[in-house]
Amino acid sequence: MNAKDVRPNIEQIRNSRDLWKEFAYQDPDINYSKRYAAAVALQYDWKPEDFDLIKFLMENEVESRIYEGL
Fold this sequence. Notes:
By secondary structure, the chain is mainly α. Helix content is 59%, strand content 0%. The chain starts with 9 loop residues before the first helix and ends with a helix.
């Protein structure tokens, strides 16, 4: 999945933890743009049940900032 595919597929992403792997931090961080796209999509289409997905995205973003900053 590319970053441009995130917004049209946000419902699928919400409902499939297997898809969340595509947003996880890797070294080098090839998923940065997908995490950003997901955050923007969730900003405009937020639901209370998104808490776990948002937490996952933010934890991986923090990890990215820690390791990419070194």
